[in-house]
Amino acid sequence: MVQALDDGAVGLWYRTAVEVLSESRGRLDDLNVFPVPDGDTGTNLLLTAQAAVAALDAEGQRTTESAWSVLARGAVLGARGNSGTILAELLRGLADQLAGQPPADGPAFAAALKKASEAAYGAVADPEEGTFLTVARAGGEAAVAAVDQGRTELADVVRAAADGARVALEATPGQLAALREAGVVDAGGAGLCLVLDALVTTVTGVEPARPPLARRDDGHRHSGEHLPHPPPAGPGSEVQYLLADADEEAVARLHERLAALGDSLVVVGVDTPTGREWNVHVHVADVGAAIEAGIEAGRPHRISVTPLAPVQPSAPVHGTRAIVAVAPSDGLAALFTGEGVRVVTCGPDGVGEEDLLREVISSTAHEVVILPNDAGLLPVAARAAGRAREAGREIGVVPTRSPVQGLAAIAVSDPARRFGDDVIAMAEAAAATRWAEVTVADQEALTSAGRCRPGDVLGSAEGDVVVIGRDLASVACELLDRLLSAGAEMATLVVGADDILGDAVCRHLATVHPTIEVSRYAGGPSGVPLQVGVE
């Protein structure tokens, strides 16, 4: 009988937990219906526990650091998925209380488990009852209650924690509709019960007698389509990465931004030999925005992106072709639609991979061309194209960096051509179109044309500022003169809300460049008074 948890006992506990989770991984995966029914909770818990033990194996013989600290660091840096990240936070909370202290007896462990469960609640942006968190809290409260009742032996305390967690687990279907309708207990909470039972086995030498984990209805492997009322699918992808070189304020800002972008957000920090690192986990529709938020906060690495609610592919109709374009405004959307193009309108949060993939799949076309029409959306389009190919589509991404390049590509499209040849022709037309735009600076900055101040009018060509002035029409005309000085046959103008600007630019072209063919369109995006394409 173990009287106190020293380094050896702590290591043995987690090795036992790995064995138990390995045996039960499939059953835990079967229970997984919340927050999304992706069937990986057991796998993620196992991988997280294995990462903790691997760190102990690698560092335990070479350091005087507490086993609590080494295990916690390995768990946090190797945590996988929502439940795995919360398990790592629970272990880190225990390490915060017990590392560097005498071996933990019953009262010490009870107090530490209760505080660790509270810390786990704090790591989750929107904690739900009926989940891993509820089970962890119940375990901590039961352990403290045992001590309060005079049962202070470590064996009594860990049994009380495991039993209290199990009672809370059985109650989870009454707290979450998704569990109740599926006839299951919470998968993450079930995994934690196994980890606590492994602790009982370590301390007492006797494995607790528990009924096997199984579905409450028939014990068969679950599949989302067989649930009576399957829970709604979450956002499109699970994004997880480690974040280094970030301070607490930057992480706080990251937490706020990711909370606004998605859900199932868990951020867990741990000290490492090279400084503090965080494990960041979130479910989002816009993968790029979640990663960019990490780049702004520090240095994200070991980035993983896993589809959570993949678009269900419908069978493509062979011999059919479609073009999918991103439009940054309703006016441009109408313009593209009028050309027979399927449109994804760019909202306040941009366009995500799922948005493009959904439009590609819903077109039912076998051959699809994607026009991102924004340099920042090229990687998003590439990822969507890769997933669409897996769904049986033939996809071509034309790297259009502006809507005017998209218009040029559409103008040469010919569905009678071989698909590959048509994509090449569209790409060549887009590449031959120099693009530019007129905007108004909202802050002081140093540009390639010099320093600008708020309110200055900026003329940009291919993304670089080349003209700075105070008058929209003057800057627009000078910008066009520069673009046309190298020779051209056609100019495409997409005018925003200022029709007077459009009139002034057209008069200038008619007077100074009378041989240029001009196509003018309204409905440009808000904040961009003029977009220009020159062919």
UniProtKB/TrEMBL annotation:
Record PROSITE patterns: DHAL (PS51480)
NCBIfam families: YloV
Entry-linked Gene3D superfamilies: 1.25.40.340
Name listed for the protein in its UniProt record: DAK2 domain-containing protein
Biased composition (Basic and acidic residues): 214-228
InterPro entries: DegV_domain_contain, DhaL_dom, DhaL_dom_sf, FakA-like_C, FakA-like_M, YloV-like
Residues covered by region (Disordered): 209-238
The DhaL domain, residue ranges: 8-201
Signal sequence interval, chain numbering: none
Biological source species: Blastococcus deserti
